[in-house]
Amino acid sequence: MKAIQAARGTRDLLPPETELWNHIEATARRVFARYCFGEIRTPIFEDTQLFARSVGEETDIVSKEMYTWEDRARAQSEKAQSLTLRPENTAGVVRAYIEHKLGESGLLQKLYYIGPQFRRERPQKGRYRQFYQIGAEVIGPTSAGSESPLRDAEVLEMLATLLGELGIVDWKLYLNSVGSASDRPRYVLALQEALKEIAPKLCADCQRRAQTNPLRVLDCKIPEDQPFIETLPKIAEFLDANSRVHFAQVCAALDACGVPFILNPRLVRGLDYYTRTTFEFVHAGLGAQNALLGGGRYDGLSEAIGGPKAPGIGFAMGADRLVLTLQAQQEAPSAMPRLADAYIAPLGEAQQEQALVLARELRQAGLRVELGDGNFRIKKSFEVGNRLARRIVLFGEEEAQSGIMTVKDFASGAQTKVPRAELAQALQRK
Ligand code: AMP
Q: Domain ends where: 298, 332, 366?
């Protein structure tokens, strides 16, 4: 029978690689805590409408990449509901913000999340159908200062710090402003006008986007399209005075704290909810899928999904890509030592139970202990022990009676006798 494999675009994360994942997540949690973010965990599936109304019907994510199904009604009175595996987490966080009336505190909400997201994309290196994001959002009523450019700069500075603490160097921060909700229509009109002429020369996707959502043309990655796209009007020329000042203040605050950035007028990002500041951190080591993380402001998102006015800014980092980057840099922190401190080898069935008790004592003393099998011959115990641990503790009849253990260090070959009461201490020593 053919063995069943993980579904396309999904994969298992195995030790020791999972150590690196844990290290990344622990570093993120540590940094977020210093910036006073708290963790939020939202459901993995949501009402499909949530994504249609926030991410946008015309985006690639909503139009072709979502895992959506009609959930069967359990009772006649219940309506079947369309549900979707979350393709991103900002919409869920803002939904929760509204549902739990978090804005009523009058304070900014600073929330972070870590978890899987799902998109039916063409899998390749750094792009999966189940992938993991580490993200954060700062959201609140305007009276709490949620629109302040300082918030944008603080989030970007936090990201520079986090990447630094992860040991990721050589990143580039691309920055842009896509303007406010009122700047956008003027720009889109100008874009549509310019696209009338060049759209026929662009790829099929862009020809469709030119009709349905012209901003998305700027996301196009097809090399042949680039010279034409370069000629399109730039959004910076359409920003109103407020958006201009806001963006200038973000840039000045970043300069003040020494976070380098590159202005990229084409950075509109693949989700409709963004307003004003948008950004992306890229890393050359990642190849085609070079974005480590992306984010931006979403001043109208809460209202778009039926909530109060609650401007916000946030980002999502691709944890899969952080792992790839660290592996490529070969600076992955040495994961948990591969070898256990000791392998306890009961030398017969009669010693098995007491060997388990001894292992329990040593583990409670903080040691990493592997427990052997009393049915093994001594030669096999040595072979297995040598693969799993730095030392072997022989536990035979003699040791059981005398209470003096025989310990052999595999590296040095030295063999010592240690009273059971002193064993934990002896093994703790280097
Ligand atoms: P987005 O939610 O599209 O703004 O993406 C934010 C970040 O999530 C990207 O910069 C990537 O690092 C990561 N990401 C997005 N889609 C995928 C995917 N299919 N596989 C792996 N990482 C992804």
A: 332
